[in-house]
Amino acid sequence: MIDNTPFILALPKGRVYEDFIPCLQETRFALKDDPNKSRKMLLDTKCPEVKVLVIRGWDVPTYITSGAAHLGIVGKDILMEKEEEEFVELSDLKLGQCRLSLAGTENILTGSSKLKIATKYPKSATKFMNSIGIQAEIIYLNGAQEIAPILGLSDAIIDLVDTGKTLEENGLKEIETISEISTRLIANKASLKTKSDLINEIKEALTK
Ligand code: PRP
Hints:
Elements: E1 7-12, H1 15-24, E2 42-44, E3 50-55, H2 60-66, E4 71-75, H3 76-79, E5 88-92, E6 98-104, E7 114-119, H4 122-131, E8 135-140, E9 156-161, H5 165-169, E10 173-181, E11 183-187, H6 191-194, H7 196-207
Parallel strand pairs: 1-3, 1-4, 7-8, 7-9
Antiparallel strand pairs: 2-3, 4-11, 5-11, 6-9, 6-10
1-O-pyrophosphono-5-O-phosphono-alpha-D-ribofuranose (PRP) is lined by residues 15, 143-144, 146, 159-166.
């Protein structure tokens, strides 16, 4: 039976997307339309069998796990919050490099047995705080965590740091690096067998 369903590569909006598009445009899977001028979420590429799905980074693992998309581009920070058996991590694209760090107004680790941590990374935050023997009360925020300590919502934050500008401008210091972060290529497990030719070709084209 001929499989006519398109092969779907899921890309996150935002910083990863901006970094990634120039790499994609150098391959035979380049986007045909200018993504900045379109509201379409499923975009055509120069390869008729391959389409690009543009969604939020946090949703990329969901599409890949279900098989609704075959390959995905996503930050390691997001993957660390998901169960590893849900997808296969194929390669580190070395884009979007930054770090997941603990930050606060002062070195709050000294003498603390319990801290309120504002973060959108509850799993990584709990794991890290357990590893240093401090109980974490997680305050889940979906962004702009940097303002939480100044306003007394939390004692500290666990968030991504790139240049450090957001921390500095909100009166915070980086206290400890938890993990180095970069953009990863992930695949649906079944697609590794059924779509291996395209997966290998796209992987090679992107990691050259
Ligand atoms: C990320 C991150 C920090 C900021 C760090 O936010 O959550 O807030 O970048 O970058 P810097 O160290 O260079 O200042 P982003 O702008 O991606 O938006 P978000 O809050 O929606 O995650």
